Amino acid sequence: EKSPANTPIKEATTAQPDPDNETKGRGIPVKIGQINVVGESGFKFTDETLTKTFMTDFAVKSLQINDIDLTRPDHPFSYNLEGTFDKYSPLSVTGKSAPLGEKIFVEQKTTLRNYSMMHASPYAIETIGTYFPTGTLDYTSTLNLGEGKIDWKSNMVFKNLEAETVNGELAGQLNNKLPVSLDLALSMLRDN
Description:
mainly beta
């Protein structure tokens, strides 16, 4: 008597591809006409891995995603996100994307206004040993990704930005390695 482990293996056969179904085979059988997020939605993000903890709140005013058709991965869907970081910094992201396409496609515009640089200070402390007690950032960008090329344009405007170097033991721990001091770099960039 043979056990299942000693049973001979039958020769496997491979199904032949159906030329009419080849493009459909890349897709996922999901179609969604529209997704809307409204009301009191959002998230809180905290990064405690830094020397000084980073925290932010994002309130979603509206999020709309239209025409998701994953049966056609190269077909882009559109999206629009409106919200606010920490009550005073409006964010807008609009665009089209086909992230599962044979070639990834993205057309996107992002606008952030009045972002407090004090909120970004925990990351600045980690990387350059400097914090920002005052100042805001206005940021706009356009991103076009397709045909194997990236075209990304960004514009950052800092207003009333003041920078201060961390002192004492923390400065020693960070062992900053900038080729010039941040104060000198900022003075060269200042628009007088």
